[in-house]
Amino acid sequence: MGKVQKKTGKGRLDKYYKLAKEQGYRARSAFKLIQLNKKYAFLENARCTIDLCAAPGGWLQVASKYMPVNSVIIGVDLVPIKPIPRVVTFASDITTPQCRNLIRGELKDWKADVVLHDGAPNVGTAWIQDAYSQSELVLMSLKLAVEFLAKGGTFVTKVFRSVDYNNLIWVFNQLFGKVEATKPPSSRNVSAEIFVVCRDFLAPKVIDPKFLDPRHVFKDVATAEHAVDKGSSANNAQANVFQPEKKRRHRDGYADGDYTLHKTLSSAEFVRGPDPIAVLGTVNKISFTTEEEKEWLAMDITSPDIKANCDDLKVLGKGDFKALLKWRLALREELGLDNKTKDTEELTETVEITEEVDEEQQISEELERLNAEAAARTKRDRRRANEVKQRTIQRMQLQMTAPLDIGLEQMDMSLGGQDDIFDLGGTERSLQKQGGIATLIGEDGDLAEDSDEEEPEAENDEVLDSDEERERKMQGLEAELDGLYDAYQDRMRERDAKFKVMEARRNNSEREEWSGIQAKAGSDDGDASGEEGGWDKMQQAKDLGDSSADDSSDDENDSVVGNEVSAGSKRTRDARRDPSTSQVSKRARLITKLEEPKSSASVSKAAQVWFSQDVFAGLDGIDGVDEDDDDTAVEDEDMAVDEEEQWKDSASEGEDDFEVVPREPDDDVNMWNPEDENEDEVKQAKIQKLGLITPEAVTIAQQLVNRQITKTQLINDGFNRYSLNSKDGLPSWFLDDESKFYKPNLPITKEAVAALREKQRALDARPIKKVAEAKARKKFKAHQRLEKALKKAEGVNATADMSEREKAQQIEKVMRKGLSSGTKAKKDIKVVVAKGAHKGVKGRPKGVKGRYTMVDSRMKKELRAKKRVEKANKKRKKS
Ligand SMILES: C[S@@+](CC[C@H](N)C(=O)[O-])C[C@H]1O[C@@H](n2cnc3c(N)ncnc32)[C@H](O)[C@@H]1O
């Protein structure tokens, strides 16, 4: 919303007022005509203009400025207008025949191209003489306009939005080809005035006098006015009170003769009046001006809140209005307005009480209505959210977005899934939520929200319902966001080659980096909690270890361990394929190790917990980590045979004890396997080819070489919060962003940076391919030239009819040419600026030898200025 313009006090002196002063216009209203003319351009080609209600003459000044030099301009007003060059003015009432005669006398048989009317009753010094209302004044000016306008002419009039407005517009439309209502920027927002520009006057031969007769034009309105006003505006007023947040437009226009937007009501009227609610909805302020009212102000019941509320009713809420009504009742009681009737007359008392009861009832009815509306709004919002969901699904089906699996999954879960409870955390709330969901789901499994049946009754349910709704909306939004993000990436990929390259690089680096322990994919495990690996798993393994210490033959534990080990390990897959291999025995050995505290006796408690994570289950790398530990290795070897047998046993016992879930080959992409030779080979090949390219890598390499860290330390450091970061269920845009910033901040040393810089410098020193090619070409050509010169020299030498001296001279010349660079030096062209002594000189300027070119010092600047102006003009035309 723009700044509120003021019509009174210093607010009047706005920028147009100042501009008018600066530019010598008599009234700021001059800018209204300037802006109207800018939009409709009716003055430039007008040869005759009549300005009705023209004092003090601002519009006349504008007309005189914008119309062609020899045009006729006539100005009429109730009050005399000070002379303006090229303008004829006279004082007359435009509603009288005398005025018409005066204009006729001035125009003779001429017709006007433009008739302007900016009249307003009660404005100017002669307001007492003005018996007409604004609308009637407009109709009178139209009467004059149709008499004096030429065919195709323009009539510009000021109209106030009132009940007559539509009737006036209807009449204009009967007489003009184009009718447009507009409010120029210089017209204050607080003013109800608008301007109607009627173009293309049809000049009918006969005009029905009823069109110009106020009694006929405004007839319908006069009769309908009360019916409409009584009903709708009273309702509106009430609605204003009880729904202050909803701005109601003045669709019925302003009350006739009342063009003010700010209305003040005396507190006495409010307190004593019969319909306080209607009053509250229509006025802006309740004032305390009389002595009695001021006394009310000082009373205890008139709290500071009430005072503040009375100051600006338009900003009040429902509660404030209720407080005001209560205050009114209390004051009435205090004043004895209600008591008096009680004491004196029984009958009147009943009437008064009824009124109070009515008010209360009215309030409660309104409140009920508001509640119903709020419920309807919630329903509408819900329907909208469903629509959004539908659209998202449709877009997905139309391949407009990438599949929004995550969003949809989440949505499904939130509809009926139990897993949602885990996501939400708090048990209490989750239980409540279950109840909520239960009420939401109908017998046939349909969601209650989809049908248009009644809302949940219990308050609790409503809260849950709205919670659920909000959550679902959030998920819908997230899904949409994901889709949009994917679409954005697709677009970027299509458009921006750079983005493509960056993405490829990122993918590459992701593949090469240690990206943490990945969750098992495709697990059909019931409690698919989002977190896998990390602390939860460690804790789980720890618990497991403890329980297995108590009861190593616990079937349940077996199956859990079996599941997790199988899902987390490539080795386990191999084992399943061929359980007789030695790898299988190793796998089985590890599993047994977890179950039997005996086998892990040599490992510390912390290490035991750490390696009890499922991801280590299939990695021989664990052994690799403890490679140096000979004891453990020997122990492992000793146990291998027993464990192999156990493995076979457990495998033969059936799937209940040990279930191996096959994993997708892709799952290994991010798995770290120190014994994966291929991975190492690829990395080594890259390092061989490019060397170490990051300062972090160089730092680590240097530290390793200098024995500042050991290999084991390095591996241990690899297990950090970044590596155990679960990515499940996270939106892709978040992961993309995280991949940029959620990285370990490895230390780098000065030496590492210096080493890399040195390497970079050496690389920079190498010429790029094109330069090398150009150099080679140059060399090749020089070689060719030399060979050619040698051949020529031989030829010269072989010539018999030349003396030795001549031969020597010729050969020297040929060889010089052969050894030269082959390019002729370009002769310089001297630039002579045509200023000072050279200005206006024709032919060669004095003192200039050789090739020259004359330039004008201003040429460039002028060309640029010209272009600038052209560009600005083009822009202006477009806008
Ligand atoms: C807003 S002023 C016009 C300002 C003018 N357009 C200007 O730019 O200076 C309205 C004028 O209408 C004039 N007016 C009101 N009723 C009139 C009538 N019946 N006949 C002639 N003039 C009238 C008032 O005297 C007043 O000067």
UniProtKB/TrEMBL annotation:
Sequence segments annotated as region (Disordered): 442-487, 503-606, 619-680, 793-820, 836-879
Coiled-coil parts of chain: 353-380
InterPro entries assigned: RNA_methyltr_RlmE, RNA_MeTrfase_FtsJ_dom, rRNA-MeTfrase_E, rRNA_MeTfrase_SPB1-like_C, rRNA_MeTfrase_Spb1_DUF3381, SAM-dependent_MTases_sf, SPB1-like
Residues binding S-adenosyl-L-methionine, per UniProt: 57, 59, 77, 93, 118
Keywords for the protein's UniProt record, in alphabetical order: Coiled coil, Methyltransferase, Nucleus, Ribosome biogenesis, rRNA processing, S-adenosyl-L-methionine, Transferase
Subcellular location: Nucleus, Nucleolus
UniProt-recorded name of the protein: AdoMet-dependent rRNA methyltransferase SPB1
Pfam assignment, any one: FtsJ
Entry annotated with the keyword Transport: no
Single GO MF annotation: rRNA (guanine) methyltransferase activity
GO biological process entries: maturation of 5.8S rRNA from tricistronic rRNA transcript (SSU-rRNA, 5.8S rRNA, LSU-rRNA); maturation of LSU-rRNA from tricistronic rRNA transcript (SSU-rRNA, 5.8S rRNA, LSU-rRNA)
Family: Belongs to the class I-like SAM-binding methyltransferase superfamily. RNA methyltransferase RlmE family. SPB1 subfamily.
Ranges of compositional bias, category Basic and acidic residues: 503-514, 802-815
Biased composition (Basic residues): 836-849, 863-879
Domain DUF3381: residue ranges: 244-395
GO cellular component, one term: preribosome, large subunit precursor
Keyword Translocase annotated: no
